[in-house]
Amino acid sequence: MPQVSVTKRASRSAKLVTQSLRTQVTTLGTTLGLFWMTFVVNSMLGGALFQFGIVPRNTTGLRGMLFAPFLHGNLNHLVANTIPFVALGWMVMLRDARHFFPVTLFSMLGAGLVAWTLGAPGSVHIGASGVVFGYLGFLLLAGVYTRSFWSIVLSIATAATWGGLMLGMAPGTAGVSWQAHVGGFIGGVFAARWFRGR
User: Fold this and answer.
1) Fewer CB within 10 Å, N or C, the chain?
2) Hey, is 54 helix, strand or coil?
């Protein structure tokens, strides 16, 4: 009987791991599919969808907080965001899959608000990098706020592998929305604080 009980527990654990991995793959895959599909449609439309990006100090431009992460200027831009989005998004879900969408929302809002407030007049801010920096901020600070062993390990791993991304928050690189990067990072930090006891 004890052997049967252990076998059942192992079977249940394996099922939970499989379900968790399936959820993670589905979530990231669906989101990436939207990124790439939007890129293809926008290319076919000659870039007409760029108008839905974040336009600083323009009331209509606020809608970009929702749409900008799905818009990318060219294939290099999309590929450059795809890799860290998958890696850091997956790490967010490793910590707790339930946090993925709220952290994404915090990041989108943070990136959008700072880009809208501090962006150059007449500029249009697009791309998922603000969300990527939100994941970075969340993962780096989650260990500090929760002080759990697993969260601290994940924060250290994030700093070791992706800490160099923080250079992207420095102003000066043409064509790079450091404002969205800073805002997304701040949004991720707020999310880490929000979920510190959850």
Assistant:
1) N
2) strand
CA distances from 17 to 13, 97, 183 (A): 6, 12, 34
- With beta carbons less than 8 A apart as the criterion, state whether 72 and 35 touch: yes
Which pair of tokens denotes residue 91? Answer: 């790490």
**How wide is the angle at C-alpha 178 spanned by C-alphas 48 and 157, nearest 5°?**
115
In tens, the pLDDT along 90-125 reads: 999 988 888 999 999 999 999 999 999 999 998 999
Q: Which has the closest alpha carbon to 84: 8, 161, 29, 186? A: 161
| 197 — pLDDT class (breaks 50, 70, 90) | low
Print the SS3 string covering 105-133: HHHHHHHHHHHHHHCCCCCCECCCHHHHH
Return contacts of 148-151, CB within 8 angstroms, 24+ apart: 150/95, 151/95
